[in-house]
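=== RUN LOG ===
request id: a7f3
mode: sequence -> structure
chains: 1
length: 282
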Amino acid sequence: MEHQKLNSFCHLTAIPRDKPSFPLRKLIEKKAVLGKILDFGCGFGKDVDFLHQKGFDVQGFDPHYFPQYPSDTFDTILCFYVLNVLFPEEQNTVLMQISSLLKPTGRAYFAVRRDIQKDGFRTHQVHGKPTYQCFVKLPYTSIFLNENTEFYEYKHINQATDNQSKCPFCKPAARLHLLAETPLSYAVLDGYPVAKGHTLIVPKRHVADYFELTFEEQKDLVQLSTFVQKRIKANFQPDGFTTGMNIGKSAGQKFPHASLHLIPRYTGDCKNPSGGIRAILR
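=== RESULT ===
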């Protein structure tokens, strides 16, 4: 993709260290690093080495330095100073990946810089290459803040206990299998599926009509649906897909909250698939 070409030197911002990072030291003090651990965007892997030495069950992933993508899920995921060097769409991809790798009751911790005054490219002092940096604010729980850095704690939207909403889309049930999440939307396997892998992609803001969502929210739903479609295809091996949404009672919308249905299709799942969506009103 073009933005990846434009931001092809982001890995150069990884810093070689001889001691564990400040965020890791603070989280260990809080006893927040538990269970099976993933350091996502681990750079040279120094935090991974330190955790290994302390007896933690830990794995590192970095697209440039440790490119083997994780095949497991994790209790704790660490992501330190990664988002600050990525474009918004790249940030969203990382957030979707981390949410999909996190166990249902797990926690992810993000550290972002607070000393960036201006977004944009600058020439790396050592390597002489253009590297991008930007200010990042996340809608997750802030657990530490000073003039240089901020830490966030993330948990799946359907594991939140402080959500008092009565809308089943604003407060999805804990039993639902969450596939991925962004700050603006989430995707879960439908609780009443019409096919194996039937998925709902839902904006977090309580809006009934898809066409009343902002462009950013609509774009986010599309990016998330593309991400989870790949997972559904790998897990269920469908022969095709039907996507769509119900807008208004006359279209079958039961709850006043927008949602996109991503329905895997299988050869023989209906007598005559000819016409597809057009056949709904026949």
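=== NOTES ===
The longest strand covers residues 102-113.
The chain is about 20% helix and 25% strand.
=== END ===
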